[in-house]
Amino acid sequence: MPVISFANAKGGAGKTTAALLLATELAQQGYRITVIDADPQRWITQWKEISGPVRNIEVISEITIASLQCHLREMASRTDYFIIDLAGARDALVTTAIGLSDHVMIPVQGSAMDAKGGAQILDLLALMKEKANLDIAHSVVLTRVTSMVTTKALLAIKGLLASRGVNVLDTPIGERIAFKELFETGGTLHTLDPQKAGNLEKARDNALSFAQEVMRLMPVRIIRSTSRVFPFGRRAA
Ligand SMILES: Nc1ncnc2c1ncn2[C@@H]1O[C@H](COP(=O)(O)OP(=O)(O)OP(=O)(O)O)[C@@H](O)[C@H]1O
Ligand SMILES: [Mg+2]
Question: Which residues form a coiled coil (predicted)?
């Protein structure tokens, strides 16, 4: 069961939105999802409280460094994908969660500030590889993309990151009212009132393409040969 975390050291990059879209779309596909809400602001926990029971989704909150690994272990037999939503920081909990992840998604908006927050996570990943021999797969996912951002501009960002060896998902997450609305109304894109959501069909297509790309990157039957050892200082298997 892959562990996917969403990290960007800068607040407001679109982590929680992307994490919720992935969780709800994978759940819609029939996968059992455990969302670990490791952000003290508890946005996904609040979403769950408004939503009530959502098929295939469990949310765990009040996460600490000590409890994180226990939750992953406890829920493993009942989970197809773990999704960890992290605070906009580069602290010990973020570092621990990244160390326990199979894939780190780094949402990045077009702005320079945002790219800096993403770069801090890329630096952290490089450090973990160098110091702890932990080679953790990661991708940048472009978020809040509007029609103002041209294909040419997106290709330029992709090219720049690719030249530094960073994978960028083919599917950017668009700027959509429906994605914001989920946090107000609860539920998923499949239960949302079309009146409230602008072009709901496009939003659904976008979220599905994003989830499908992640599924292709991480088919669910990943078999880990050994459990991962953390924290730093020990050699990972
Ligand atoms: N694709 C999107 N379309 C529309 N609004 C979005 C989108 N992504 C994010 N937003 C909005 O931008 C704001 C910040 O997004 P979000 O909470 O997902 O970022 P974050 O990286 O999780 O922030 P934090 O670091 O504070 O946890 C929210 O108001 C959210 O509704
Ligand atoms: Mg957040």
Answer: none
